[in-house]
Each structure stands twice: as structure tokens, then as C-alpha cells.
Design a protein that fits this description.
With 124 residues, this protein is α+β, with helices and mostly antiparallel strands. It has 5 helices and 4 strands; from the N terminus they run ααβαβαββα. The protein is 48% helix and 12% strand. The longest helix has 17 residues.
Length: 124
Amino acid sequence: MKLIRFVLGKIILTLNALFKPTAQVREASEQRKLDEQTKNWRLYELNACPFCVKVRRELIRLSLHIPLKDVGTDKTAFDELMRGGKKDQVPCLMIPQTGGGEVRWIYESSEIIAFLRTLEGQKI
């Protein structure tokens, strides 16, 4: 099973590299505003996970610069995910709330993408 996952992971990463999506271009001031809004967000992921690749591709399309945390290679990232999100599942988007609110943890690639698209009114 590990061999199959390894091979499929390499195929996914190769195809992802060959068919990279085009980044959206927006005004510099608008991009700075989005970057400021998302600077403390985190996407917990695994490099070769097909659902994580799907979310990363959407980040590129939307020109969102959200830091990635690979839970497969970074034990600290995995511990953060388990402490905060309480689920051993990726992808997971962590959104810290301002003003003392609770941190929001969004699982499921389709839900993450739908949420990211609402940042610019781009509903699915």
C-alpha cells in the first residue's frame, strides 16, 4: 500500500508541475490588502495528497499567499493541527479570528476552496 501511495504521489506531483495553473492578476493595493488579511492563516497539508494539491492549485489561481505547513515532514505542524483542529486530516485551513474570537478550522478541500473564493465574491 505504501508503494502504491508513493507512486501515485509522484504522478500527482509531476502532473501538478506540468500543468501549473495561471495566477490571477489584481491591483497591487488589492493584493497587499489580501496578503495582510491572510498573513496569519495556515494551510496544513501533505505534499503529495491529491486534495491538498487541489487546494494549493486554487491558492495559485487566486494569487493567495497563505503559508503552508506540511504535517508529514514537520512534527511541530502536526502537533499544532492536533492541538488546534483536533483532527488528523488534511487539507485544513486555519484562520485566526481577530478581536479575541475563536480560531476557525476548515477541513475538506471543496469547503476550503469555496471559502477562499468568497474572499473575492467568486462563489462556486
